[in-house]
Amino acid sequence: MQSELSGGFTQAPQQAAQAFRACLEAMARPGQVQAIRGAAPPAPLSPAAGAVLLTLVDQAVTLHLAPSHDTPAIRAWVAFHCGAQLVDAEQADFALGTWAALGPIERFAIGTPDYPDRSATLIVEMAAFGAANARLSGPGIASVQEADLPAIPAIQQNHAQFPLGLDFLLCSGAQVFGLPRSTKVEAL
Amino acid sequence: MSDQAYNFAYLDEATKRMIRRAILKGLAVPGYQVPFASREMPMPYGWGTGGVQVTAACLTPEDTLKVIDQGADDTTNAVSIRTFFERTAGVATTTQTAQASVIQTRHRIPEEPLRAGQILVYQVPIPEPLRFLEPRESETRKMHALEEYGLMHVKLYEDIARHGEISTAYAYPVRVEGRYVMDPSPIPKFDNPKLGNCPAIQLFGAGREQRIYALPPYCDVVSLDFEDHPFTPSKADHDCDLCGCATSYLDEVITDDQGGRMFVCSDTDFCETRRDAGHRGRLSPEETA
């Protein structure tokens, strides 16, 4: 039976390490889809996004739940497994939701010129990774990489602010790919 | 067999999450030094406490770890860190570059080209390339924010004015993706060309200074120089006396008090692999029988 107590890592150190390596490869190789497993969170939270939360989010950071994912079941699951303080978008270190629910993304912290790392990481839930609609280039990409992005102009604008900006982990099912602010995006 | 008294890979999970968040931000802003809450490790500062924390945050049970100290697998620092992770993480270890999935290094990049799927973790003593030019953290932070790197070029120019060439031979500053000037840790400048366009992920950990930074794969890394004094990677003008390699980075070893010396590959695994393949140098003649 699913309760807020279940669905976490059963062997936290090992599974968190494996899930982190998926996140590491995702952030290091933008657009390349990585398998990530270990979590069984309540719907509509995907196993991938659940594993990202278990791996990166804890009492030391703040989390914003977009309306798409602000359900009592997810609140209870996050409270038990991560313990992160739930906050508004403006204060969030991490944010979780569908692209539509997270917008407008200008609300999130993009860091400061002194501390560009003080920016939000958006965990974006997608129904599925469909056909590629964008060509990516930049650090982490040997020549070109194609990806299915939820929005192109907003992500181009985010890149234009480099070294400030938001970083994205896009999740669907048990898969994740990363899109750091350093990635240049062109519509296909 | 791992030591059951420790959590997997020594650090507690909250610490690993904090380090992991810093590593991901470091990858998103290549070359920028992300502050992190460095922990005390069971080894003194200067022995790779930063590298060890980054390695601990990255290791999975499936990994094969290699640790090198100035290219060598068999020096005190390398052996103790390798044993540390054998005990606390129970991971397999190796001395062969090609077999390793995670390589922690002190001041060298292996001669053998790295591949995708590998992670190279550098131990960094002073992560701030501008620190010896400007001691105040508040100022160097502003200089990075404003891309104010003129002082670094003045330093390289003064090298030329005094010595006729850029005399900086290690920890040679680089510019990452045209934005941040980064200290590649005290690797010889011979290794600088390997930083850029590398298929592996490169992570840098400075424990005492509490900074983590990163180079994603296939990153644009340029060693600073001038049009009329271009950057030149340098090495001792000899062949390895054991394996005969003419292109590897060499250590000079004094062999007696009569001026005797030999030059050997600093990368011990590279040298051994070549000797196993039958290559010979000046001091290792063909074995008979």
Automatic annotation (TrEMBL), chain B:
The keyword S-adenosyl-L-methionine applies. It comes from the Bacteria. InterPro entries: PhnJ (IPR010306). Its EC number is 4.7.1.1. It catalyses: alpha-D-ribose 1-methylphosphonate 5-phosphate + AH2 + S-adenosyl-L-methionine = alpha-D-ribose 1,2-cyclic phosphate 5-phosphate + methane + 5'-deoxyadenosine + L-methionine + A + H(+). The keyword Iron applies. Pfam families: PhnJ. It is an enzyme of class 4 (lyase). Keywords: 4Fe-4S, Iron, Iron-sulfur, Lyase, Metal-binding, S-adenosyl-L-methionine. Catalyzes the breakage of the C-P bond in alpha-D-ribose 1-methylphosphonate 5-phosphate (PRPn) forming alpha-D-ribose. Belongs to the PhnJ family. This is Alpha-D-ribose 1-methylphosphonate 5-phosphate C-P lyase. It comes from Thioclava arctica. The lineage of its organism: Bacteria, Pseudomonadati, Pseudomonadota, Alphaproteobacteria, Rhodobacterales.
